[in-house]
Please model this.
Amino acid sequence: MTRDEIKDIVLEIIEDIDDEAEFDDLDAEAPLRDQLDLDSMDFLDIVMELRKRYKLQIPEEEYPQLATLKSCIDYLEPKLKDVAA
Amino acid sequence: MSGLSEYQLIIVGGGLSGIAAGIRAARFGLKVLILEQHAIPGGLNSFYHRQGFLLETGLHAMTNYAPVGDKRAPLNRLFRQLKIPRKSFKTHEQIGSQILFKDYSLNFTNNLDVLRDEIRSVFPDRVSQFDKLVLTVKDYDPFAVGPWRSTREILGEMLDHRILEDMLLLPLMVYGNSEEHDMDFAQFVIMFQAIFLEGFFRPHGTIRDFLYELLDHYKEYGGEIRYRTGVQSIIKHRERVEGVVLTSGEELKAAMVLSTVGLPGTSKLTGWPDDPQHYNGQMSFMESIGVLPAEQRRPVHRQSTIIFYNSKNSFDYRRPEQALDTSWGVICFPENFKGLPESDHFQIRVTNAANYEIWKQADRDEYLRLKKQWRTRSSEVVTDIIGSYDAGCVCNDAFTPLTIERYTDKAQGAVYGSPIKIKDGRTPWANLFIAGTDQGFLGIIGSMLSGVSIVNQHVLNK
Model:
């Protein structure tokens, strides 16, 4: 998967969790939590959805690496590089 | 053994915490089974039929009202977690409620300014103290682990006005306090937020509709539920549990078990806690329901959603010495929510604190006599407040602590469960967890959030 494809996947998962999420002014380097008004329960859903779709096991201590859209992509890129989009 | 399990998660109890937990686990592909001892779901928040009327049990209203779009509000977080579109859940807010003591009265709605203005006119020198209390509640994290703190002590210092303190405590205690006399300050904060800051509402449909909508959703994710299925014990093996034995003798294996039947109920299934009497709540209630034809509905029946009455100016929340304490209680008009369509009938529901032991010790004849006698006494007190209504009822029913115990399996009919809560949901077994009332969240929204958060912490977050 390319970085752009991973970005689309992350946004799709967030939209699936919160149908009111607005991505128009999203800053890729600022925390998703503040911009989208998400909480830790919503973050767990991102993790669970990645596990369900790609069998990815993300340990709890690595959750902070999902804080921004850019850090999500950085973190997922090596893990999803062999996965077809 | 996990490879041999029939289920990844078995949930004991098909009430709202169990159903919410089930949805949450099934949503992420776990094989889940809910076991419910009765023929219908809901536990404490359920329904039954009398003379052709559907009567709801449990709460008079839901708490924690939040409009669509307020993403951080507990109600909306819950719907997101269950993946149910909040927009599809039509709600009706309360008209307004009243705290009515012998010589004082305070009205409140889902807008805090109304209560503040009332306090300004009734207790003018206490407004700034009340404002300070509101700020304290807003800043307080009730879910942080900490020691029990006395609400009475904190309010005594902060408000320094016993009557106002008692008035604020009546609705918060009667709708969610498992302790007598006092209340853990964290619990006070949860209830203050749920009732005064967020407020009362009800769904457009009945609790029956709500339960079956949730269960349809659960089944869409592949979740299973079995009714009329009692659990006899939980199978233990060293530090783990391996499943359950049903009252039929059938054994079901599970990788994890979630008990929503309270601490006394869990003790029956596992032997833990080994001193279940410490976990018996003292507070139970009798509820009388009267159904009246619409043509008898007078203006007084339309004014309030809920009246919290007290015929004295001081309030002590405790198990009464007599079978029932009619000196204080709750009068609810379940039709009085904004925008509910008019129907052919309306209800008046009355709740009073009851003494479980007295009801328990009565033989059948004495029990029926007590029920009739105290129902009448209660309606006499209520008549003083809202005028005569009893003679006009086309359907009358009442349930006592024994009815509650029988149908909900809450020990001693204690609707708010144990005064001691297990906030982290853990038990001595690594894969057995507690959710629901005795985990610490209360009310319909609270108990559902309990099921969700325990599954998040212990089942999904692995």
Summary: The domain at 3-80 of chain A is CATH 1.10.1200.10 (Non-ribosomal Peptide Synthetase Peptidyl Carrier Protein; Chain A). Chain A has a mean pLDDT of 92.
